[in-house]
Write a structure and sequence with these properties.
The chain has 3 helices and 6 strands. It is an alpha+beta fold. The relative contact order is 0.22. GO terms for molecular function: fatty acyl-CoA hydrolase activity.
Length: 147
C-alpha cells in the first residue's frame, strides 16, 4: 500500500486516540480489529469537520464503505501515545477514497485506505458525489496548486 508522503492531504483531520484495556489482545498489543474502529472514529471526525452526517441524512443520502486496506507497520501497546490522521485522497464521480496513518509514539504504526460512495437512503443505490463536497475538495486542490 502506498502512503501519500507529500504534505498535500486534502481536508486532513487529526485525532488523539486513547488505547483502552479492551483494545489489547492476549499477547499485549492492540488487536487488529481495533484499527477498524479507529478508522471509523477518524471518518466521523472528518464528517464533523467537513461534511456533517446529519446534513447528509436530511438530504436523503449517507456514506457507505466499499473496502478497507490496512498495512500494520509496528505493534501498539497500552502505554503508547497514538495519533491518527485521515484525509480525502481521491474524489471521483461516484466514489471517494480516504487514506489514513496511525502513529504510535511519533512512529508510523499503520497505514490504511478506505473506499466508499454515497447512497440514497430511499433505494440504497449510489448517487453522484454531492456538489458541495466536490467543491470543497476542489477548492483545497486549487489552494495547494498556488503554494
Amino acid at each position: 500500500m502506498l502512503v501519500n508522503n507529500s504534505l498535500h492531504r486534502p481536508l486532513e483531520v487529526v485525532l488523539e486516540i486513547p488505547v483502552r484495556t479492551y483494545d489489547i489482545d492476549f499477547i499485549g498489543i492492540v488487536s487488529n480489529i481495533v484499527y477498524i474502529r479507529w478508522l471509523e472514529d477518524l471518518r466521523l471526525k472528518f464528517l464533523d469537520e467537513h461534511w456533517h452526517l446529519n446534513q447528509q441524512i436530511a438530504q436523503g443520502y449517507a456514506p457507505v464503505l466499499a473496502g478497507t486496506e490496512i498495512e500494520y507497520k509496528r505493534p501498539i501497546k497500552i502505554i503508547d501515545q497514538v495519533i491518527g490522521r485521515l484525509w480525502l485522497s481521491n474524489l471521483g464521480r461516484l466514489k471517494w477514497t480516504v487514506q489514513a496513518e496511525i502513529f504510535s509514539n511519533n512512529e508510523l504504526a499503520a497505514v490504511a485506505s478506505q473506499k466508499g460512495a454515497f447512497v440514497s437512503l430511499q433505494n440504497s443505490r449510489p448517487i453522484p458525489i454531492p456538489e458541495e463536497l466536490k467543491n470543497k475538495y476542489l477548492e483545497h486542490q486549487k489552494g495547494n496548486l498556488k503554494d
